[in-house]
Design brief:
There is one protein chain. This protein has 238 residues and is of the alpha+beta class. The protein has a domain of 130 residues. It has an 8-stranded mixed sheet with strand order 1-2-3-4-5-6-7-8, covered by helices on one side. β2 and β3 form a beta hairpin. α1 packs across α2. It is extended, with a radius of gyration of 37 Å.
Length: 238
Amino acid sequence: MTTDPLEQPSDNPSGGRQPGGEPPRGPDGSDTPPPAKKPRRVRRLWKAIAWGIAVPALLVALAGGLLYGVVVIERSTAYAWQAAVKVLNGQLAGKLDGGSIATGLHMRDVRWRSLDGSGTDIRVDRIDGKWALSDKPWRFVVDYLHVGTVEARIAPSTSKSEPMSLPKDLRLPLQLAVRDLSVDRLILHEGASTSEYGRLLFHGRSDGQHHEVAVERLDTPFGAVTASAKLDGVRPFR
């Protein structure tokens, strides 16, 4: 009796499942990975990329917000000043009466002194200023900066003085305008000598390359002086 091979009973009568109910194995004997895992891995990868972009961007935004708050908000500027006084531990002192870094400050009894033993000590009894920074183009405008008495004690230099040389470039990264700057008194102590200047009145402006300055008045030990100058920021500085 001849048996047709097509009519022989199948070794896998359960329709593709191995005996014992196990799923079919690959050529190397390993289980065939379920097709649903691949999209899950892709989603996991995109989620990791999204977190990798979002977290740094959020940190940058938070840092920018904090910096903006310190610069613009008066209370934040006061906190920043108190922190600077505390961190510098005796080098900086003074009273901030109001204002913000972005719009102007009102201060009194400001003192900076060096703790390295050089003896540098600078005191300012009063500072009142108003200014603003704008863009398109970048421009910093000082409406006024009124300073009372500045007393500076500077230790004499012990290093050999080198011959003065002209800078390579005098251009500024932004436009600048100083409309009203005044200093009541300037007292300089250098070693055993003392020089005193008073009633400084100054204004100036610059488009970044071309500079104009004017000293309307300055009382010196040799008498009152006035001066004005125009200067190109590119050599030969004419």
